[in-house]
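User: quick one - fold this with magnesium ion bound?
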Amino acid sequence: MAQASDTKLIILDRDGVINEDSDAFVKSVDECVPIPGSIDAICRLSKAGYTVVVATNQSGIARGLLDEYTLAHIHQYLADLVEESGGMIAGFFYCPHGPEDGCFCRKPEPGLIDRISAEFASSLEGVPFVGDSLRDLQAASATACLPVLVRSGKGESTLAGGLAAPFSDCLVYPNLAAFADAWLEGHFSTKPGMLGAGYK
Ligand SMILES: [Mg+2]
Ligand SMILES: [Zn+2]
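Assistant: Sure. Structure tokens for the protein plus magnesium ion:
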């Protein structure tokens, strides 16, 4: 059931933001290792009234590395960890396709974010999208979301690759915990032209 249009959304990439990224893909609950502080960060955002949603590319499904049943278990595991600490992940939206499938949901395409906007009947204006890869920033900027980069996961190599316009003044945080700290303390403005000032 859709929530009120004043839902305060925060959208997170999964691998490299919530749990450790793996070049071999996260194919089981055992391979899903939370990044220190990330579960607590989601709880704090959730307790502060934010609706925290995940948008994740899971091409391991198209590649035959795991099935959607196993993926559901992995997501239940993460949701349970958050719930045990008193928070909530409101939804997991994933793209099961591969790079050659030409779908509209695999980031950098904005399809997942658009689905989240529709599901929660919420505007994306100023909604932070936190990711560790360039394609996360691209998906965010293809919508009205505010792109945020974390240095965890692939974030350090994303930065090393150089962030060209329009991402040169993108907000960058060490990890999800640091983003949550700053967001909850209101340490930055979401007005255009004010991004990142002093908080890189
Ligand atoms: Mg990622
Ligand atoms: Zn897709």
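One thing worth noting: The beta strands are 9-12, 51-57, 91-95, 128-131, 146-150, 171-173.
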